[in-house]
Design goal:
Length: 572
């Protein structure tokens, strides 16, 4: 395996997607409806200017930049410039409720938010709910626009882009660095975070292009296409296609607001030939009065998000749209499969309604009990399991599941749930799993390890890139880099956050009484039921927790004083 010091080392970073279009198609257009029209060569210059502007405002490696915009050239530029800096792009779902948006801002640990003037009324509701200190940068379609609001903006996008032309050099760093973060819709609870590294996004881009083209035939994406997304850019990187279209070096069109008349006009005027959307958007386009007068015969439309109804597919085909289905999830980057049509029988509607074949490098199976693969006979059902190099790995899945489910549920599943399986009862582990003490300790350990892992991961990612570069320049191996630089630095930074986690776990131990253990809360409950003194019993329990919390706080304060004293302000 090549080391980072080797001249042959080539990290899979988002900036690598720009090399091919700048070499092969530098004069190809990128269109932002009503705002900008420029070439890939101009795009490269604008990325450097944007990165330089963000850097002047303190944005660097590990910082989180949130975006709230329509689908414009600004969003497209942030897709590249922000992660290429080593920062993390948070694509804010503007359709969430204000409280949910505030939650995602806090949870993603946003440092700065680029917000369009149209969303300032929404932000008036969101920001009072945000707990962290976040800076705002104004986005506006008209540079002369001066919106009325209560916010103090550090700058505007126009001011940053009006800066002097720059030869900003995007750094190399580990391809496992987090590039993007976004959140699911939160229909079953709080929105759930999904994050992707540079490596995952680059490999997903390669998978898309290997599956969809670049052969000019059927429903594929090729170098002769004009790409126009009709999937919001905050939704899983617009399904990853802006990255794929960029690598191909094809013309791209960004529509801004999604109104049927405007979308149809752009399809006609800009010659859009490849797009993707959910069935409701397709229905909206076909139902628009302008659709009857628009030539849609060159348009290829990938449908995802939900099943494509047969009637809608037939209506689209009647309008000349080459419509077909794909499948994926937010956690799969997202595309896993798409319908592959028979060139000799493209009139087969049934083939267009199926999820189709997996992309190259995707291992997708339908399994039953015991992970046994089920026959692909069109009748047998099972659960879908998938592997691909761009999928989030086991560590992410572990932290996602554990942090996304209540502690009480985890405790019940371990203590009560495992006992129903005969294999567990007959195993050598049964003496342990039949013990309430062991099950409670195991549940607490599993829960806190997921949160602790996220705290440590965040601290590792916050390590100044200069320290890593200096260590590499000194000739440190990867092991020595972690032992002498990354881990000591990260553990120090993680200490304040970890102290909160320890205190939260102390309070969580009160759940142990649910599984028959007599802890402080359980003892209080026993006293209350036996002597009918609930007030005295639970006040005493509360005092015990207060004393223990005070001791822990003092211990962590001493630890912080010992190991974080170099970060304290100097006293003159």
């Amino acid at each position: 395996m090549l080391s980072a010091d080797s001249p042959a080392y080539f990290p899979l970073l988002i900036k690598s997607l720009l090399r091919t279009p700048l070499q092969n198609a530098p004069e190809t257009e990128i269109v932002s409806d009503g705002l900008m029209r420029y070439t890939y060569r101009d795009f490269d210059t604008r990325l450097k200017t944007l990165a330089s502007g963000l850097s002047r405002h303190g944005i660097g490696h590990g910082d989180v930049v949130a975006v709230m915009d329509w689908d414009t050239h600004r969003y497209f530029e942030c897709f590249f410039a922000v992660p290429m800096l080593g920062a993390v792009l948070h694509t804010v779902n503007i359709r969430l409720a204000p409280a949910q948006i505030a939650y995602t801002i806090d949870h993603a640990e946003d440092d700065v938010i680029l917000v369009h003037a149209d969303f300032l009324p929404l932000m008036e509701e969101v920001m009072p709910l945000v707990k962290r200190k976040v800076r705002l940068i104004l986005l506006r379609d008209d540079p002369a626009q001066d919106p009325e609001c209560s916010f103090d903006f550090v700058t505007s996008y126009d001011e940053m882009m009006a800066g002097p032309a720059t030869d900003f050099e995007f750094p190399d760093f580990d391809e496992g660095t987090r590039a993007t973060t976004f959140y699911t819709t939160g229909t079953t609870g709080e929105p759930k975070a999904v994050a992707y590294s540079h490596r995952q996004l680059v490999l997903h881009t390669m998978g898309l292009l290997a599956g969809f083209g670049p052969i000019e035939t059927s429903n594929r994406l090729h170098r002769g296409d004009v790409y126009m997304p009709i999937t919001p850019m905050f939704h899983v990187h617009a399904w990853g296609f802006p990255y794929a279209a960029t690598l191909l070096g094809i013309k791209q069109v960004y529509a801004g607001r999604y109104t049927p008349a405007n979308l149809l006009r752009l399809i006609a005027e800009e010659g859009a030939t490849f797009s993707h959307c959910v069935p409701t958007i397709l229905q909206m386009l076909l139902s628009a009065p302008e659709a009857a007068d628009t030539d849609l015969s060159r348009l290829k439309m990938l449908i995802g998000g939900s099943a494509l109804p047969r009637g809608l597919a037939e209506s689209a085909l009647a309008q000349g749209i080459n419509v077909y289905t794909g499948y994926g999830l937010s956690e799969t980057c997202p595309v896993l499969t798409f319908a592959v049509l028979d060139p000799d029988d493209e009139a087969d509607v049934e083939a267009r309604l199926k999820t189709g074949n997996p992309l190259p490098l995707v291992d997708l199976q339908t399994v039953g009990a015991g992970m046994v693969e089920m026959p692909r006979d069109g009748v047998t059902t099972g659960e879908v399991v998938a592997r691909a190099p761009w999928l989030n790995g086991p560590a992410w899945l572990y932290t996602y599941v554990i942090r996304g489910t209540p502690m009480l549920v985890q405790l019940f599943l371990i203590y009560y749930g495992l006992a129903q399986f005969e294999a567990v009862r007959e195993s050598v582990l049964w003496p342990y799993f039949s013990s309430a003490t062991f099950c409670a300790c195991l549940a607490f350990a599993i829960n806190t390890s997921a949160y602790s892992a996220e705290i440590l991961a965040g601290s590792l990612k916050a390590t100044p890139h200069g320290e890593i570069e200096a260590a590499k320049a000194m000739g440190m191996s990867r092991f020595k880099l972690y032992r002498r630089i990354l881990l000591p630095s990260a553990l120090r930074r993680a200490l304040p956050q970890y102290s909160n986690e320890v205190i939260m776990m102390l309070h969580t131990t009160s759940l142990a009484s649910i599984v028959t253990l007599i802890d402080i809360t359980g003892a209080a409950r026993t006293v209350s039921s036996r002597y009918y003194m609930p007030f005295e019993a639970f006040i005493t329990a509360g005092l015990f927790y207060l004393v223990l919390t005070f001791i822990l706080v003092r211990l962590f304060k001493l630890a912080e004083g010992r190991w974080l004293s170099h970060l304290a302000p100097r006293k003159h």
